[in-house]
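Okay, can you check this protein?
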Amino acid sequence: MPVEQEENGAMGTTRIAIPTPPRYGWQEDASCRGMDAALFFGDDQERPGERRARERVAKKVCISCPVRRLCLDHALTVPERRGVWAGMGETERAALLREREHAA
């Protein structure tokens, strides 16, 4: 459990840190903000060709996104199993996670 050190005059006190909720404010600046989520998350009935076409369009939205790195960090940390995040599809993120685990 994280602790915070607080100095109180000559005596120091230690307090348990209050957990902070995850911060998702970066999403306010995302290029995809306000777009239809169906572009980034296909349905289970989607055919492979339709999926590839949809993901190509979604990835184009991500190319110049100002918060792309934060989005990728989120997707890998959670981890997000579905959809396009930071211009990467599910299999691309899974491969990146395997590479990072192998390098560690």
